[in-house]
């Protein structure tokens, strides 16, 4: 969701790995089975002076500021722990994680995308630590709702997604919606849309007025998923979307409603509602251009709000997509990338304490102070005004009264690549909606065993 080149050593050194696996006082093991709740050690001060290695992808302004502040507070509380943090883009973190977890030199704490292609594969390979015991000892099971923790649960064989052991803990909430420029809307004589028909009218009006209706940078392929996800909910029952997105049997990408949704996305592209060449524009460049006045709408994630507001101020607004099937608002979202502990981490005791610290109620307040959106107490902690107030309210409304749909790339180990390439081809006019649906169905069916 969320996204320059970072080089890390993935070279395994057998002797060092063996020593690390039995080093005393560090809580180290290369066994993915974590401690039971009555075996959990929470005495971080008793570990002596240690360096805790943390890898995350919280690189944007507000995200980086919140993590930096939390690290400072953690080091103040535990003066014997020094945090060695490596921050990198989402894409680079994904690449480095797959390489690093297969070696001996791993970080102690690692943000892991909870999709089957990432967390699911790492669980299957025994490369992550089961955090179930820590969850009980630290009270994470009570702190977080089942719906939140389910997005980081897999059975130990990784066949079941959404149930089973806990492999990570999230810190922030995410929701995809519609950013808009109030000045741009006023300039074309339009109001914020309250229905999908009104949204379509806004797009047509903007294009006729010589404005770019929707800013999209889809060079990296995944951004289009955050546009299509909300649009899909205008046609398809949320329960069906959830089956497809979680890789659970019972869905069908080739049914008429999914084809209708893909058809509308293709129509948007053909009518230039997404610009002349959205597939050739970088994601970060796209939202930066939006803050400079290019585009009326931008359909994207809540994590962009703070940074865009720094440039646009009160002109920037956010709304959940209009209600879809069944009259409920349903849109892509969920949690930020969960924080996990590699099975070969050298400092698992301190790593669990760090995860507990950065996901506590006090941490949620600090996240808000630095412009982020916490996954807990969202409504109570909403700012008094500005775009983040609207984002918090949208997240709360969708979570409680609507449907927060899983990211579509959760579905299968290969679905991120399949869906990204398929939507890029659809937008570029190289694939028809029916062919796109067939490509998506093949990946989904191959994984679920559907006919």
Helix content: 40-55%
Number of helical regions: 19
Summing up helix and strand content along with how strands pair, one would put the structural category as: alpha/beta
Biggest β-sheet: count, sense, barrel?
5 strands, mixed
- The whole-number mean of residue pLDDT values reads 90
Alpha carbon gyration radius: 22 Å
Tell me the number of strands: 11
Describe the structure in your own words:
By secondary structure, the chain is α/β, with parallel strands linked by helices. It is built from 19 helices and eleven strands. Strands 6, 7, 8, 9 and 11 form a five-stranded mixed β-sheet that branches. Strands 2-1-3-10 form a four-stranded mixed β-sheet, with helices on both faces. It has a two-stranded antiparallel ribbon with strand order 4-5. α13 runs parallel beside α14 (305-312). The two termini are 31 Å apart.
Structure characteristics:
single chain, 451 residues, alpha/beta, five-stranded mixed β-sheet, four-stranded mixed β-sheet, 19 helices, 11 strands, disordered N terminus
SSE blueprint:
Elements: H1 14-20, E1 50-56, H2 61-77, E2 81-87, H3 90-100, E3 109-111, H4 116-124, H5 132-138, H6 140-143, H7 146-149, E4 153-154, E5 165-166, E6 173-181, H8 182-187, H9 196-208, H10 223-232, H11 238-246, H12 256-270, H13 283-291, E7 297-301, H14 305-312, E8 316-319, E9 330-335, E10 339-340, H15 348-358, H16 361-369, H17 387-401, E11 403-405, H18 415-428, H19 433-448
Parallel strand pairs: 1-2, 1-3, 9-11
Antiparallel strand pairs: 3-10, 4-5, 6-7, 6-8, 6-9
């Amino acid at each position: 969701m969320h996204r320059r080149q970072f080089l890390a050593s993935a070279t395994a050194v057998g002797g060092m790995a063996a020593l690390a696996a039995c080093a005393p006082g560090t809580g180290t093991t290369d066994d993915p089975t974590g401690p039971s709740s009555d075996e959990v050690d929470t005495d971080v001060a008793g570990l002596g002076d240690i360096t805790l290695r943390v890898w995350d992808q919280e690189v944007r302004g507000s995200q980086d500021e919140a993590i930096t502040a939390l690290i400072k507070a953690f080091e103040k509380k535990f003066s014997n722990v020094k945090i060695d943090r490596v921050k990198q883009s989402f894409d680079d973190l994904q690449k480095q994680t797959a390489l690093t977890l297969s070696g001996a030199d791993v970080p102690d704490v690692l943000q892991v995308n909870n999709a089957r292609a990432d967390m699911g594969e790492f669980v299957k390979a025994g490369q992550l630590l089961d955090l179930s015991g820590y969850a009980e000892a630290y009270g994470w099971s009570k702190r977080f709702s089942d719906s939140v923790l389910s997005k980081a649960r897999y059975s130990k064989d990784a066949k079941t997604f959404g149930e089973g052991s806990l492999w990570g803990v999230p810190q922030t909430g995410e929701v995809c919606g519609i950013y808009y420029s109030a000045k741009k809307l006023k300039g074309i004589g339009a109001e914020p849309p309250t229905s999908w028909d009104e949204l379509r009218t806004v797009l047509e009006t903007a294009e006729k007025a010589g404005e770019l209706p929707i800013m999209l940078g889809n060079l990296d392929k995944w951004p289009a998923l955050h546009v299509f996800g909300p649009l899909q909910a205008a046609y398809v029952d949320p329960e069906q979307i959830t089956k497809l997105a979680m890789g659970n049997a019972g869905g069908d990408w080739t049914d008429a409603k999914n084809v209708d949704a893909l058809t509308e996305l293709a129509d948007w592209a053909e009518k230039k509602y997404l610009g002349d060449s959205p597939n050739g524009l970088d994601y970060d460049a796209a939202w930066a251009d939006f803050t400079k006045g290019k585009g009326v709408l931008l359909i994207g994630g809540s994590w962009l709000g703070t940074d865009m507001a720094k440039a646009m101020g009160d002109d920037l607004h956010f709304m959940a997509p209009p209600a879809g099937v069944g009259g409920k608002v349903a849109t892509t979202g969920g949690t930020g990338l969960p924080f996990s502990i590699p099975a070969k981490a050298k400092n698992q005791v301190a790593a669990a304490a760090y995860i507990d610290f950065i996901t506590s109620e006090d941490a949620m307040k600090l996240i808000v102070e630095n412009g982020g959106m916490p996954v807990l107490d969202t409504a109570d902690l909403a700012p008094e005004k500005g775009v983040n107030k609207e984002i918090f309210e949208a997240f709360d409304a969708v979570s409680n009264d609507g449907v927060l749909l899983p990211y579509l790339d959760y579905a299968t180990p290969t679905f991120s690549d399949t869906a990204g390439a398929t939507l890029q081809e659809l937008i570029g006019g190289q694939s028809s909606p029916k062919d796109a649906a067939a490509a998506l169905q093949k990946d989904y069916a191959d994984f679920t065993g559907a006919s």
